[in-house]
Amino acid sequence: MRPAKPSASPSLECRGLSKHYGSGRVVLAGLDFVLGEGEFVAVMGDSGVGKSTLLHLIAGLDVADSGEVLIDGEPVLSLSDDDATRLRRQKLGFVFQAFHVLPHLTLYQNVAVPLLLNNLSPTPAHDMLAAVGLGGRGNDMPRELSGGELQRVAIARALVHRPRLILADEPTGNLDPQTAHEVLELLRAEIKATRAAAVMVTHSEAAAAFADRVLILSQGALHDRARKATAAR
Amino acid sequence: MSTPKTGRGLTTLARWMLGAQWRSHRGRALVAMVTIALGVGLGYAVYLINGAAFNEFSAAARSLSGQADLQVRGAQPFMDEAIYPRLAMRVGVTAASPVLEVDVALPGKSTTLKVLGMDAFRARRMTPDLVSIPSSQAMLDVLADDALFLSPSAKAWLGAQDGAHVTLLGGTSPITLRVAGGILRARPGQRIGVMDIAAVQTHFHLQGKLSHVDLQLARGVDSDAFRQALQSELGTHLVVDAPSDVESRTDRLSRAYRINMNVLALMALFTGAFLVFATQAAGVVRQRAQLAMLRVLGMTRMDLVRQILLEGGLLGLGGGVLGIALGFMVAALALRVFGGDLGGGYFPGVEPRVAFEPIASAIFLLLGVGVALAGSLVPALEAAKAQPAPALKAGSEELALAPFGTPWPALACLVVGVALALVPPVNGVPVAGYGAMALLLVGAIALMPRLTAMVFRRASARRVARQGNVATMLALARLANAPGQASIAMGGVLSSFALIVAMAIMVASFRVSVEHWLAHLLSADIYGRVVQGGDAAGLRPDQQAQVAAVGGIAHVAFARVSRLTLDVAKPPVALIARELDAADPDATLQMTGNVLQPTSWHSGETPVWASEAMVDLYGYRLGQRLELPVGGRGERFVVAGIWRDYVRQTGALQMRVADYRRLTGDVSATDMSITLRPSTTATQVIHALKKLPFGDALEFSQPGEIRARTLTTFDRAFAVTYLLEAVAMVIGLFGVGATFSTQALARAHEFGMLRHVGVTVRQILAMIAAEAGWLTLLGIAMGCALGFAISLILVFVVNPQSFHWSISLHVPWAEIVMIGCAMLVSSCVTAVLAGHRAVSMDAVRAVREDW
After folding, report:
1. Mean pLDDT of A188-207
2. In this structure, is residue A98 part of a structural domain?
3. I need a surface site. Which of A1, B497, B754, B759 has the fewest CB within 10 A?
4. Which pLDDT belongs to residue B839?
5. Is A98 within 8 Å of B296 when comparing Cβ atoms?
6. Residue of A92, A119, A155, A160 best to disrupt the B interface, most CBs of B under 10 A
7. Between helices B483-521 and B431-466, what is the axis angle to 10°?
8. How far is A56 from chain B (nearest CA, A)?
9. Where are the domains of chain B?
């Protein structure tokens, strides 16, 4: 399958991506996938089908059996670990189900981490916190926040350094429906504002409804459900 | 790809993360720092104390030879003064100064006063510091035969001011002298007196004798060549010393003691390193997901390693700085309270003062940092190596410790350790022996995860089959399935208990060997000697006859103890002439093997029996033929046996007193062993002996007193060892506490979950106690085995190589069991206390906690 190509210069391109586990089970079988600038895609599928593995391969956190991943035209899988790390640092942003906010840093420091890793001024972290509705709480510690607020911090951290691609793994899996709705609205708005592309793995139809299109991962390949998120909203 | 260079951003991030670590784990960081501080502090203190004492002792010894380029001495304590004009007129010598040096006893004092007999006019040039200062009204006192000039310390010690009279013992006779003034410059604490040389010869019955002649050489004379030529001309009965030999002798005299003290102190630092490792490893396990997140966000492996090493290094730096301050204070206090040798008896008569040493301080500081970095390196590398994606998942902690389960590096350490134990000493120091001990320790600790898994998997399988209670089942399951985390805590138990067992076995072996040796040696009823008076003291034949005639005495065996210099770079060996049955020397001495029977001696040979130290230091072997500077030139000696001596680690030779008298003409005696007639008591005989005209100059002991005194000295010498051992144990328990505490907090989530499913707080605490108990029990069992192995190295390798005597193995089971029980209880209590805090956390919050 080949989902529609929305622009001439894709932010992400997967070519013939294959991966099997040690047990011999094939999770990705020659997967092709293109994502254009500013595009927000939801990937759905059964548990264990390989959704998170796909994200890990895109981020250079796991090794594919074959195929290639290009981010802004730059091949990821052939990069050394250090170069892949630097690419993640500059061009990717992550949002996880478990938030993974560093517990002993303040909110401001948490959001500033990607800026500092890129040797940039940490000051924009304040604006980013304000943008996700946590203005003035930069000195709070993560333990003082609710789950929804922690995910807002994670979103701010994912976007603060203006990455080209956001990877979100079940970003609302730990949140109640109302908070999940707010967080996804925020995520979408920020993605659109920064013109980053985004891949969101989710089990939730409600969450998937926020994406521009929905892809189903099944039998090692992606299938387009061609649903417009905006319509649902 | 183009990437911005990491720079200030990463520096800021590193600073933030360090601050966060400090804020969140201050207690743990402080424990690690204090541990390193203790290790560095003890090492630095021992170094400062030894260094100060050694330097002061060497300086005091050097000050006695002053500006001399060379010194000619007798191989025995005194030499004929006829050598002096020959040396003074020798081509190449610009000045020669004769000196007669005697250690003189004083009534009521337990130590001696060194009295130097000098030619005032020649000494002025050679040893200007020792110039006598008479009062301006009596300038000729420097030549007076009753005038004694004392150093400030000697005056203070004797409580004698100028003009006062002091009584010294010349052999067995009292000599009253007048304190005529002081000495120009003496070292602090140096107790010496200076007299005219002729007066010393007269008062101490040493007419025609000298101790040494100090020589100054003309400019341009090659000192080494001159020395070699002179030595070959003078033969072995006279030795030619250079100033460097003084330092070498002092060094050899105390080297083994100083090195052993330093190694003991470094043991504390080693356990400190292990604690840092345990702290950092536990921290890395706990923060595994956080570190993985940093990798996901773009921190490179190298940046992560740098960050973790920076944390460890800062702990080391903090601990090191604290340790340097602590070490300086401890050294100053110990020097003031115990003296420079901490009771070891190696540096008598000096008052060393501790001085700040920048280079040594820097080295110890670096040692602290290095130890902390070494402790952090393995966890840092593991954290960097971890794949971020799996590490982000909860429950992956044990994966972090998987590399520690590989047995090969541990087995390699053990094999190399055993091999090193067989390597001979390097320059008289058992470097390989110490290396072997360290490798065995590291190897055994590294093998623990594997052993823990093996033991507890088997135990867990049995328990599951028997359907035990929930606490037991949970505890065994964790120990079986998370052996890496469990082993970190056990490493502290293992290392400290192994060291304690090793030291306990070594000390017990030594002590029991000394007891057996004393029982063998002390066969007479009374032992007597001329009150400590150095080489000048001795009973004349008529006095010996008076002793033998005292009622109640069945037999008196007289002995003459003297010194012999066989190598100028080594301290003199003791020469003991006594009654010995050549056919059965074992009746008197504790022989270590076969003896050479009289039938095997060649005609004209004199037998000598050498101590074990002579074998190590001078290469003596049974049956070896040799020349000794005793008697005339060309006398032949044969080594007729090797005996055990726990007193003189620099070597001793025994010979029959009749042979000694025949060869030297010296018929005096310094020691005696008295056998009583039946129905006579020792007290009666000692009373009668004290009534002899020279009775005040004699001191007597009964075997029980000597035994008690020797063992008291032994225990005092090992008091510092016990102290350092206790510190190692406290550090070990610190490690257990810190590790259990870290792990318990990291397991708050698990405890919260257990409470959710209905496990009570009491059951969780029982589980923690069971885990700690079994773990500690295994640690103690392994520590016992490892400690035994290390004790074998201490007893059979390090001890003989350091002190040149052999000891037999004795295991103090009761002491080991007692310490083991104490460790088991403290470990369980520590674990439960640490666990209590984690269990006390609100169950809902504990489960919700993200990290």
Report:
1. 89
2. yes
3. A1
4. 74
5. no
6. A119
7. 130
8. 7
9. 1-64+251-394, 70-241, 449-523+704-851, 526-701
